[in-house]
Amino acid sequence: MKLSSFAYFAGFGIKTVLFRKKDPILGTIILTDKCNLKCKHCSVNNITAVVHPYKQIKKEMRQLYDMGIRILFFCGGETFLWKDGEKSLRDLVTEAKKMGFLIVNVVTNGTFPIDLPEADLILLSLDGNRLQHNKIRGDTYDIIMENVQNATSDNICFYMAINQINKNGIRDVCLKAKNMPNVRAVSFNFHTPYPDTKELLLSPREKAVCCNVIAKMMKEGAPVFNLKSAFPYLIRNSFPTPCHQCVVMENGKLSTCGRCIEVEGLCEKCGYFFVAEYTLLFRGNIKIIFEMLRTYLKYI
Predict the structure, then answer these.
(1) Is residue 21 part of a domain?
(2) 108 in a domain, yes or no?
(3) In angstroms, rounded to a whole number, what is the distance separating the alpha carbons of residues 69 and 65?
(4) C-alpha distances in angstroms, 265 versus 198, 242, 258, 262, 294?
(5) What does the alpha-carbon distance between residue 30 and residue 217 come to, in Å, rounded to a whole number?
(6) Nearest alpha-carbon partner for 279 in 63, 81, 20, 55
(7) Neighbour count for residue 259 (Cβ, 10 Å)
(8) Predicted confidence (pLDDT) per residue in 169-202, tens digit
């Protein structure tokens, strides 16, 4: 991370903690809900299958930037399906950097060639070992591994949503992240139970077991891009929600924290590690502050 970026984020954090401010710093733009997969745990794919045009996305980027947001995520659907004429995902990342966003990340399912060195991180969904992953996402594990191996940069971060199907696959994903040169880190979430995916939800006891495995893998040198200090809050779902420092923009609609905020009762069962980490950070949790500094400086 550049020194100037670090100084900006440090200043934002200090003001937010001291003055209990609720200004956002992280924004996500949904480029499309069109996806080439139909994953068992996903409730937001191919609802409209609309690919939003470049002009609209650029306008949304400007709106988020003017709100003070400096960390930008591009999400889908599947982001690598996004095109508008000759414009591609690379053009969006480049435009975001030019506009002044300090960190620009992309989320993908990894089934398309990964040639995007301009992104700070490419969060690539890998949901366990081959058997577990393919049970959730279809027969895609091998093509993803091939794409990771052939990627043009080392900016990939595996992104695993832990659920009832893959809860025993944490170690496998950690070892893949540790041993593949193009993979910088691995980031975990627990499954958030949208109404049609409740059967995948983990119990607090199961979450505790998973956190113990993640902590053990961290101790063994796995490059985990999560904060161990947040684990107890995630197990008990005792962290404050929603996260006011994060927003999502989809087709002109701005939502605080995420698109799930309007689903009654879902915030209380949130499984997103970053929500716990950010809300605790901006409440001034000392352990979280120091661990986040160490983690972000290492992996971004």
Answers:
(1) no
(2) yes
(3) 5
(4) 12, 12, 14, 9, 34
(5) 32
(6) 20
(7) 17
(8) 999 999 999 999 999 999 999 999 988 899 999 9
- Residues spanned by the domain of 51: 3-16+26-299
> To 5 degrees, how large is the angle CA 75–CA 25–CA 223?
65
Q: Residue 170 corresponds to which tokens in the numbers above?
A: 């944490």
Taking residue 163's Cβ as centre, other Cβ atoms within 10 Å add up to 25
pTM of structure:
0.96
- Judge contact between 119 and 154, C-beta under 8 A: no
Residue type, 114: I
266 occurs within a structural domain: yes
CA separation for the pair 193, 199 (Å, rounded) = 8
Q: What is the distance in angstroms between the CA of the first residue and the CA of the last residue of the chain?
A: 6
82-121 pLDDT, tens per residue? 999 999 999 999 999 999 999 999 999 999 999 999 999 9
Instruction: Tell me the torsion sign for CA atoms 72, 78, 84, 87.
Output: positive
Report the number of distinct structural domains present in the chain. 1
Whether 105 and 123 have beta carbons less than 8 Å apart is answered as: yes
- The DSSP 8-state label assigned to residue 22 in this structure reads -
Extract the tokens encoding 216: 């053990």
Query: pLDDT of 38-67, one tens digit each?
Result: 999 988 787 888 999 999 999 999 999 999
